[in-house]
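User: Structure tokens for both sequences below?

Assistant:
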Amino acid sequence: MAAILETTDLRKRYQMGKVTVDALQGVDFVVQQGEFVAVMGPSGAGKSTLLHMMGGLDTPSDGEVVLGGKRLAHLSDDEITIVRRRQVGFVFQFFNLLPTLTAAENVALPLLIDGQRSEDHAARIDELLDLVGLGDRKERKPDQLSGGEQQRVAIARAFANDPKIVLADEPTGNLDSKSGTTVLELLHRTCKELEATVVMVTHDPRAASYADRVVFLKDGRTVRELLPGDGGLSPQEIMEVMADLEL
């Protein structure tokens, strides 16, 4: 498999008054095409910072991000914006749907932002909404959908531009257990059916068990990687690693 995303000695420092915070301290990370990777660690471990670096939402203090063969440090801000718009899909904890738009219009939003006509992609929008089980709700606005349904719209939107990689930041963090399970099953199935690549940040061992492998962060560093056995990954197995690492 080819690497879709790679970070090399990735570092991020923040200045908070007179205190320097090292959010990332030399992270080497590779994601292959078609993988579903979970990134785990305690609050403050650098999970979301890493995700933002990988998606071009923030710039590293040192090190390098290569996304789809493009070295982000060598691109202008406008060029990074285009790469992010066309090659990366995002799923956030709080859905981020526009309340005045229907589900179909929210899914089409990345296409419109990229200057494309949603009418030219109507079949794909319908296909994605069918894939997430909301084909019969495409004309509903967010306040007419449950939290789980809104996150399913957000997942469909993340895949609208056929991105090279989808980055999900705590996608079940704002959902109840039942809705969270539905979203995780959907994200896993969508990844496989569309042959897509997904990196998901989570603190939840149950969520991480849906991934193909789990990378653990602690104090801004990768400290371990967990690969599945014959029966896949289990939440108990992940919890045992977390306890061993004192996460």
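Moving on to the next sequence.
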Amino acid sequence: MNPPKPIREVMLAAVPSLRAFAISLCGNVDRADDLVQETLLRAWANRKSFEPGTNMSAWLFTILRNLFRSEYRKRRREVEDADGSYAESLVSVPEQGSHLEVAEFRKALKLLPPEQRESLILVGASGCSYEEAAQICGCAVGTIKSRVNRARSRLAEILAIEDANDFGPDVKTRAVANSDVTWRRSG
């Protein structure tokens, strides 16, 4: 009876098959070689978890396939931006303004009559339908609609909101962000 081959020899003997499998998965020889290399590194690092007497090739193929799938999922979320134009077009609005807006909104919400606040929270924040909110509050659907409408109007008045453009960054911040994007595109 022959003694078992050292794990290193068995792993190296599997390289041609692993490479062929990797090429069939990704269709790119360079990427396939990287995948095989990463597979061998992971297998070597975890060689103690391999159970002697089981199929080493199957173990290596499983590692390779799992690596490919993980990288595929990761790459699917990535955006190709070789020249950096996409990254340049992204604008990050300062966060401190939004914290202040939330604090102001909470104060304004407390100024509403309890019935209006309750109705607005049920419909606007909790996602209840008008019918569900009416059932919870024990009143007619029309009453809930009226309370929500009055609450929204009163909040807009308290917060000095005239239209949808008043949400998010202030006018100056939007102007700077938009001019920066325009400047980058034309420059």
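User: Anything stand out in the second?

Assistant: The chain has two domains: 7-76, 96-168.
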